[in-house]
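User: Sequence recovery, please. Input:
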């Protein structure tokens, strides 16, 4: 069982995330120092100059204008901002200008309301919501370069342990990369408000050891099984509107509006992370997606109980 890792920028597993943690520590150190100085001086002034018994109640001598003090409290914050700006710029450039390695894995991720399409152009794989990549061992690095596009509104692709947020913008192609060093499943989330199910737009990145990744690729490239015992369900599937939005390779279903279902059951969740992918949940989902994900753009399919059973019996064979 691959461990699921808690999303935290303080537990990085990939070069851009390590850089972000370093920068965060620098910023935290600077702001902690500022806090200690300001809070310390405030406490000192409160204690040292508090009203004491026997005070005559008059104000102490007032000071109006001091060039030295004004220069100090203008220049010091300005220098702090310059340091933060230059350091941040240096980190951003170091991450953005990283050359694409010849052996890099290329993935295209398309943000949709409210799910992620994931394509591997060179491998002929299309899946959804669960990105699978090989581990990038420092001794044998193999980064993953991700092209980000949007089908509708602005989303943001964010896996805190692997890299910073990158916006996913209609009409614009953004690029980012990750090189996860430790196998595991990393949890991410759309990080730009994109409509009613913004919170239901999760994604995971599963990082596999090299051989295991090859097995995953082979399984995804395989044709969908076509079992005679679920032919009736397949006929239901191809006779209703499913085929307009979904693809199952090897069948007449070639829609691209919704997730590719060729290996639907290889995914752990339904609806971009809103429910576990069990036959019961799948049945509820097909019957009425809004019961699990209010606002989901997939309509309730309104197939009769028997046909629904046949349809689900077919879908669960798509491993
Ligand atoms: Cu997509 Cu928020």
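Assistant: Recovered sequence (319 residues):
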């Amino acid at each position: 069982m691959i461990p699921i890792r808690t999303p935290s920028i303080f537990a990085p597993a990939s070069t851009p995330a390590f850089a972000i943690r370093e920068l965060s520590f620098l910023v935290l150190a600077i702001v902690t120092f500022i806090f200690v100085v300001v809070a310390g001086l405030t406490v000192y002034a409160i204690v040292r100059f508090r009203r004491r018994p026997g005070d005559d109640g008059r104000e102490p001598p007032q000071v109006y204008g001091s060039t030295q003090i004004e220069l100090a409290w203008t220049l010091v914050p300005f220098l702090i901002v310059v340091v933060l700006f230059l350091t941040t710029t240096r980190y951003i450039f170091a991450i953005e200008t990283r050359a694409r390695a010849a052996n890099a894995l290329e993935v295209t991720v398309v943000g949709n309301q409210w799910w992620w399409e994931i394509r591997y152009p060179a491998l002929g794989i299309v899946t959804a919501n669960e990105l699978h990549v090989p581990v990038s061992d420092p001794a044998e690095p193999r980064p993953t370069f991700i092209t980000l596009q949007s089908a509708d509104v602005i989303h943001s692709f964010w896996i805190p342990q692997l890299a910073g947020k990158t916006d996913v913008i209609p009409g614009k192609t953004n690029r980012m990369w990750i090189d996860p060093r430790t196998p595991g499943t990393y949890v991410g989330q759309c990080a730009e408000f994109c409509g009613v199910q913004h919170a239901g737009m999760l994604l995971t990145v599963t990082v596999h050891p090299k051989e295991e990744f090859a097995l995953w690729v082979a399984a995804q490239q395989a044709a969908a099984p076509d079992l005679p015992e679920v032919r009736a369900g397949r006929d239901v599937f191809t006779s209703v509107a499913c085929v307009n939005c979904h693809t199952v390779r090897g069948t007449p279903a070639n829609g691209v509006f919704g997730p590719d279902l060729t290996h639907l059951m290889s995914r752990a969740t339904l609806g971009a992370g809103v429910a576990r992918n069990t036959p019961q949940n799948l049945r509820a989902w097909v019957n009425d997606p809004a019961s699990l994900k209010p606002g989901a753009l997939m309509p309730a399919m309104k197939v009769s109980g028997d046909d629904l059973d046949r349809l689900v019996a077919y879908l669960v064979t798509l491993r």
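The chain has a mean pLDDT of 92.
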